[in-house]
Amino acid sequence: MAARGDSFEPFDETLASTPLTDPWVHALGESPVYAPDYAAFERLLAIPLSSDKGWQSGGLANGVDSWLAHELRRAGFGADEVWPRASRPRIVPRDIAALLELLPKDLSSEIRRRLTGGGFASIVPTDARILGRAYEKQVDVAIARWDRGPELMLSTKTMVSSFGKNLANRFEEAYGDAGNLRGRYPLAAVGFFFLQRSTILDDEPDAFEKTVDMMRKLRDLGGANGYTATGLALVNHATDGAVRIELERIPADVRPEQFLIKMIEQVLAATPVAHHVDVRSKMERRNIPVAEEDNADPSDR
Q1: Keyword annotations for this protein (predicted)?
Q2: Beta-bridge partners for 82
Q3: Which of 128, 215, 236, 240 could form a disulfide with 230 if both were Cys (CB 3.0 to 4.6 A apart)?
Q4: Phi first, then psi: what are they for 288, rounded to 5°?
Q5: What are phi and psi of 114, to 5 degrees?
Q6: What is the DSSP string of 7-74?
Q7: How confident is the model over 91-136, as pLDDT tens digits?
Q8: Cα(102)–Cα(297) distance, rounded to whole angstroms?
Q9: Which 8-state DSSP code applies to residue 112?
C-alpha cells in the first residue's frame, strides 16, 4: 500500500524540477546582494491558488515555507539541513542523515523507504516543534542540530482578506513568538516572513501602511526581544490565472532580499568558519580553504 502523502507533497515535483542556482549576484569584495528566485515562488504559490479552494486553500502557507526552504538551499545549506526538506520525510535529524550516508546503499535505501512510509513521527516528524523560553512553538522553516541547537527559525504567516481587522492580533502573536524563541536561543537567527494578497493596496491602504510599520517594529532593536529580520511580499492571482509576486510598493528595508541576507549572516556570525563553509564561500565569492566540520567521518564505515 502506498504511503499517504503530507501537506507539502503538492510542491515536491516543482521543487525537484527547480535548480538550486547561485542566489548571490555581487562580486568579490562587494556588499552581499541576494537575488531571490521569484519565478519559483510564483510557481509554488500557483499550486494552492489554482486549486478549487483558491485563496481559501491552507496550502498557501506551505507554499511560502517551501520557497523559503528552497532559498536557503540555494544559499548553500544542505538538502537534509533545511526543514522542511524538498521531499519526505520533511525533517531528518543530522545524525540520522549522517548514518544513512554511511550505510551500504541497499540498507540505506530500505531505511529511507521505511522512514518515508510513515509510522516514525517521533524520529522524522513533519513539523518542527521547538521549546522556547516559555512554551513549545511550531517553527515553519528551521535549521537545527543537537550539538548546535536551533540555528535558524522562521515563522511565516499569510493574510488574504480582512487585513485591518486581523492585523493587530497577527502581530501580537508574532511579537510573543519572537520573545519566546529569542529568550531561549539568543544566538539563533529568528525571522518572521509575511505574505499578503496584493488587494490590500487598493482595498485597505491604511492596513498596508500599518503592516510595513509593524514589520519594522517587530525587529530586534538591541534588547534581544525581537526578530533578527522580517520580510514582506505581496501576491496577486490575476483573472488570467497568472500568479505574480508584487514588490513595487514594498520598501527596500522590508523586502525578501534583505530578509534572506540578514538571516544567513546571523547563522554565519554565530558559528565558526569551519561550519557552513559552502554557504560562506558562496556569499563571499571565493573558495574558503577550510574543511567543513559537518561532514560524516568515513572512518565510521
Answers
A1: Plasmid
A2: 143
A3: 215
A4: -85, 120
A5: -70, -40
A6: TTGGGHHHHHTS-----B-PPTTSPP-B---HHHHHHHHHHHHTSTTGGG-THHHHHHHHHHHHHHHH
A7: 888 888 888 888 999 998 888 888 877 677 777 777 889 999 999 9
A8: 9
A9: H
Using DSSP's 3-state secondary structure scheme, residue 199 falls into coil
**Cell match 500599518: residue?**
210
Can you tell me the distance from the alpha carbon of 300 to that of 298, in angstroms, rounded to the nearest whole number? 5
pLDDT at 295: 55
Three cell numbers written together for 26: 555581487
Query: What separation in angstroms does the CA of 226 have from each of 129, 172, 277?
Result: 20, 12, 28
Please give the Cα distance from 24 to 8 (Å, whole number): 27
Tell me the three state secondary structure of residue 297: coil
In 3D, which of 222, 234, 139, 213 has the Cα closest to residue 171?
213
The Cβ-side half-sphere exposure at 127, using a 13 Å CA radius, reads 11
State how far Cα 298 lies from the chain centre. 30
Look-up of cell digits 519526505: 88
> Among 258, 14, 219, which residue's Cα sits nearest to residue 247?
258
How many other CB atoms sit within 10 Å of the CB of residue 153? 28
CA distance 115 to 129: 19
DSSP state of 123: T
